[in-house]
Design a protein that fits this description.
The structure holds 2 protein chains of 2 kinds.
Chain A: H1 4-28, H2 42-49, E1 57-60, H3 65-70, H4 75-82, E2 106-109, H5 115-129, E3 136-141, H6 148-160, E4 164-170, E5 173-174, E6 177-178, H7 189-195, E7 199-204, H8 208-223, E8 229-234, H9 254-261, H10 265-273, H11 280-304
Parallel strand pairs in A: 1-2, 1-3, 3-4, 4-8, 7-8
Antiparallel strand pairs in A: 5-6
Helix pairs in contact in A: 1-2, 1-10, 1-11, 2-8, 4-11, 5-6
Chain B: E1 4-6, H1 7-21, E2 25-29, H2 43-49, E3 54-56, H3 61-73, E4 77-82, H4 92-99, H5 102-105, E5 115-120, H6 135-139, E6 145-147, H7 152-164, E7 169-174, E8 181-183, E9 197-200, E10 205-209, H8 212-225, E11 231-235, E12 238-240, H9 244-254, E13 257-260, H10 269-280, E14 290-292, H11 303-309, H12 313-324
Parallel strand pairs in B: 2-3, 2-4, 4-5, 5-7, 6-7, 10-11, 10-13, 13-14
Antiparallel strand pairs in B: 1-8, 6-12, 9-11
Helix pairs in contact in B: 1-2, 1-7, 3-4, 8-12, 9-10
Classes of the chains: A alpha/beta, B alpha/beta.
C-alpha cells in the first residue's frame, strides 16, 4: 500500500500545478492550446497510478494532466508543451491533449473520445502475447463510455484476457450535458463492463484510499493474467470542460458544484490523515509552497525555451524511408 | 444596405425557419441544447422548440449517424451538428457506406436526407485532431452534397437548401468565419448546390477558393490591387457538385489560376479544381496553376509553427505575384485573419 501521506502529497502537487497553470493560462494568453484541467479529480489519477510499477503504461483521453503527473511525467516538459516550445514533451507539436512521456510510462493522451480505450487494449494484448508482466491502464470519462469503441474494446479484452485496467472517471458531465441525459438512469458503466464478464468495481472517486485499494486489486489481477479489470470512479470536475474558467450556474447548478467542492479529495485525504498526523496542515502549507514554486520554475524554463524552428514544420510526419532491397 | 447578420446568426436563423416550415426537421448533436448552443447556432432553435426537437445525444457519433439515417428513412429530417468536424470520422461508416449510397444501391427508391454540419477549428493550438478541413474527404464520395459556405448569406441559403434536399448533405463551417458579418435577407431562401459565384471580378489572375479561404483571397486581392494586379476571386460555395463553369470561365478569362484551400493539396479540393481546369481549358493557361494549402504534415500546436502551417492571404498574394511576374518586395506584409483572436475555445 502506498503511504497515505504520499498519496495526499501527490494530489496536492497536481492541484497546485493545475491551479497555477489555469491562472497563467487565463491571464497571459500565452499557452495557446485548449486545456482540460482535472482540478477536483486528482484522487483518480493518484490512487490508480500509485498502484503501478514504473514500467506499466498509461493511455488517457483529453483530460490528461493529472494522470501524466501521477505516472511520473516530467513537469517542465508538460508545461513547455502547453507553451508550444521545442522542449515540450511532444516538442510543441501536440499540445495539452497529446501529452506523452514514454520514459515514465505515460504512453500518450488523445483528443478524440474513446480512442485510447482501444489503443490501451491493443497495447495490453501485445504485452501479454510477448510474455510481459506489464499492466496497461487507460483513463477516460463517462462520455467516452458511450462510444462504440468502448464496448468493442471491452469485448476484445475480455476474450483475449488483455492485462488492461479500464478506469472510467465518471464526472457526470460531457461538456455541459449531464449523464442523466445521455445514459439510462438504472444502468451504470460498471454494469456494462460486468456484462462482458470483466471484474468491475464502482468506487468513490474522491476517496483516494478507496481508489488506491481498488486499483491495487485490479492491477494485481491483470498482472496475474486474470485481466482485464474495470474501475468506475465517481468524481466531479471543478472547472469548465475546456479552459481555466468555471461554468457554475451556467451549465451546472451552483448547489451541485458546491456540494462537490465540499467533497474535495485533497481535503478528505487530509482529514483522514489528521488523527495520526496532527501537523497535516503545516505539511499541506509547505507542499503548497513547494509545488507552486516548482510550477513557477517550470513556467520560467518553458518561457525561456525556444519555439520550434519554422523550417522544421513538416519534420516528423514520416519515419525513415524504406529503400529498395 | 439590407440587414446584416453574423455567420452564426445566419445559421441559427435558417435552422429556426426550416423547423418552422417543416415539423420533420430535428437538430441532433452533443450539447446542442446548452447555453453556448453550438457557438450560438442551435440556441435559438432550442429556445423556440425545446428538447423535443433539439436533441442532446450521447457521445456516439457512429451510432448517431446511423440513427439519423434510419430516422431520415422514416420521415424525419435530422440536422446533425458536430462542433468539431474531426469527430465526423467516427460518423463516416454510416454516412459513407450507407447514407451516400442509399438511394443508388436500393434502386433509387428514395434517399436519406441527413444533413451534417461540421465546424472546423483553426488557430489557438487546436492542433492535429481539432482543426482538419474535411470537405475534400467528404467531397470524394458520390451521393453526397458537400458545401463550405464563405458568407453569412450563403451559410443560410445552403443550410435551407440542405434541409429541403432529398440527398444527404455535409456542410463544413470554418470556426473563424462565425463572427464575420454580411447582408442576409430575412425571409427563407435557397442557394443551390453546385453553383459558385465570382466574389470579386478581376482580369489578371483567378483565385479559386471555398469557405475561409475566400476571405483570405479577397484580402490578398485588395492588397494586390494596390500593386496594379487585378485578382478575380471565385467562391465555389459547393465542393460537390462542383461548379465547373464558374471555375473554367474565370480561368479562361485570366489565364492564371491560384487555388487556395484549408485542406491538404494531395487528392484534395485544390487537386480537383486543377484537374477540372486541365481537362476543360488547358490552353487558356498562361502559367502553371499554383496551389496554396497546408504543408504535408498534421496541424501543429506551437503558434509559430501553426502560423506557418495555415495558408492565408500572404501566401495567396505571393502565389498571384509569382504568376504575374510581380515584385514581392513591393508588397506590405499581411496579418492573418485570426490576428487578435483571444482563446480559449
Amino acid at each position: 500500500m502506498a503511504d497515505p501521506a504520499a498519496l495526499l502529497r501527490d494530489m496536492v502537487r497536481i492541484r497546485c500545478v493545475e491551479e497555477e497553470l489555469a491562472d497563467l493560462y487565463r491571464d497571459e494568453q500565452e499557452m495557446r492550446t485548449p486545456v482540460h484541467f482535472s482540478v477536483g479529480q486528482e484522487a483518480a489519477a493518484v490512487g490508480v497510478c500509485a498502484a503501478l510499477r514504473e514500467d506499466d503504461l498509461v493511455y488517457t483521453g483529453h483530460r490528461s494532466h493529472a494522470a501524466y503527473l501521477a505516472k511520473g511525467g516530467d513537469l517542465p516538459a508538460m508545461v513547455a508543451e502547453l507553451y508550444g516550445k521545442e522542449t515540450g514533451c511532444a516538442r510543441g507539436r501536440g499540445g495539452s491533449v497529446h501529452l506523452t512521456d514514454r520514459a515514465a510510462g505515460f504512453a500518450g493522451s488523445a483528443a478524440i473520445l474513446g480512442e485510447m480505450i482501444s489503443v490501451a487494449t491493443g497495447a495490453a494484448w501485445a504485452l501479454r502475447r510477448q510474455g510481459s508482466r506489464q499492466v496497461v491502464v487507460t483513463f477516460f470519462g463517462d462520455g467516452a463510455a458511450e462510444e462504440g469503441v468502448f464496448h468493442e474494446s471491452l469485448n476484445f479484452a475480455a476474450v483475449h484476457r488483455a492485462p488492461v485496467v479500464y478506469v472510467c472517471e465518471n464526472n457526470a458531465y460531457s461538456i455541459s450535458s449531464p449523464i442523466a441525459a445521455r445514459q439510462p438512469a438504472d444502468g451504470s458503466v460498471t454494469a456494462r463492463a460486468r456484462a462482458f464478464g470483466i471484474t468491475a468495481e464502482r468506487v468513490d472517486g474522491n476517496d483516494v484510499a478507496a481508489v488506491h485499494a481498488a486499483a491495487r486489486r485490479a492491477v494485481a489481477a491483470c498482472r496475474a493474467g486474470q485481466g482485464p479489470a474495470f474501475l468506475e470512479l465517481d468524481t466531479y470536475r471543478w472547472r469548465e470542460h475546456v479552459g481555466p474558467g468555471h461554468d457554475t450556474g451556467v451549465d451546472r447548478p451552483r448547489e451541485e458544484v458546491e456540494s462537490w467542492l465540499e467533497r474535495c479529495p485533497v481535503r478528505r485525504a487530509a482529514d483522514a490523515l489528521r488523527p495520526g498526523a496532527p501537523d497535516v496542515e503545516e505539511r499541506l502549507a509547505a507542499w503548497d509552497e513547494e509545488f507552486r514554486d516548482e510550477t513557477r520554475l517550470a513556467v520560467a524554463a518553458a518561457k525561456a525555451a525556444p519555439f520550434p524552428a519554422v523550417d522544421r514544420l513538416t519534420d516528423g510526419a514520416y519515419g525513415s524511408p524504406v529503400h529498395a532491397s | 444596405m439590407g440587414r446584416t447578420l453574423t455567420y452564426w446568426q445566419a445559421i441559427a436563423e435558417a435552422t429556426v425557419q426550416c423547423m418552422e416550415a417543416d415539423p420533420a426537421v430535428v437538430v441532433v448533436g452533443q450539447n446542442v441544447d446548452d447555453a453556448k448552443g453550438s457557438y450560438g447556432t442551435t440556441r435559438a432553435a432550442y429556445e423556440r422548440f425545446g428538447a423535443a426537437r433539439v436533441v442532446d445525444t450521447p457521445n456516439s457519433e457512429n451510432a448517431v449517424a446511423g440513427i439519423c439515417i434510419g430516422a431520415a428513412d422514416q420521415g424525419l429530417r435530422p440536422l446533425v451538428v458536430h462542433t468539431r468536424a474531426d469527430f465526423m470520422f467516427l460518423a463516416m461508416d454510416a454516412l459513407i457506406n450507407l447514407g451516400s449510397k442509399w438511394r443508388y444501391m436500393y434502386g433509387d427508391q428514395g434517399g436519406v436526407p441527413v444533413v451534417m454540419r461540421g465546424v472546423v477549428g483553426r488557430g489557438w493550438g487546436q492542433g492535429a485532431t481539432h482543426s482538419q478541413s474535411l470537405h475534400s474527404v467528404f467531397g470524394h464520395f458520390p451521393g453526397l452534397y458537400v458545401a463550405a459556405p464563405a458568407s453569412p448569406a450563403d451559410a443560410k441559403g445552403l443550410l435551407i437548401s440542405a434541409l429541403r434536399a432529398d440527398t444527404p448533405v455535409v456542410l463544413m463551417e470554418n470556426r473563424s468565419l462565425y463572427a464575420t458579418e454580411g447582408e442576409v435577407p430575412e425571409e427563407p431562401y435557397t442557394v443551390p448546390f453546385g453553383k459558385g459565384r465570382v466574389a470579386r471580378p478581376g482580369a489578371d489572375v483567378t483565385v479559386v477558393a471555398a469557405s475561409l479561404m475566400v476571405h483570405e483571397a479577397l484580402r490578398a486581392a485588395e492588397l494586390l490591387a494596390g500593386q496594379g494586379v487585378d485578382v478575380e476571386v471565385v467562391d465555389v460555395r459547393s465542393v460537390r457538385p462542383l461548379d465547373e463553369d464558374v471555375i473554367c470561365s474565370s480561368a479562361a478569362r485570366t489565364g492564371r489560376v491560384v487555388i487556395a484551400d484549408t485542406s491538404w493539396a494531395r487528392y484534395g479540393f485544390s487537386a480537383e479544381v486543377a484537374a477540372v481546369i486541365a481537362e476543360h481549358v488547358p490552353h487558356a493557361l498562361r502559367a502553371p496553376v499554383r496551389r496554396v494549402t497546408p504543408p504535408d504534415c498534421p496541424a501543429p500546436v506551437s503558434w509559430p509553427l501553426e502560423e506557418a502551417f495555415h495558408p492565408g492571404a500572404q501566401k495567396i498574394a505571393d502565389a498571384c505575384l509569382e504568376l504575374v511576374g510581380g515584385d514581392r518586395s513591393a508588397v506590405p506584409a499581411l496579418a492573418g485573419v485570426d490576428a487578435g483572436f483571444i482563446g480559449p475555445y
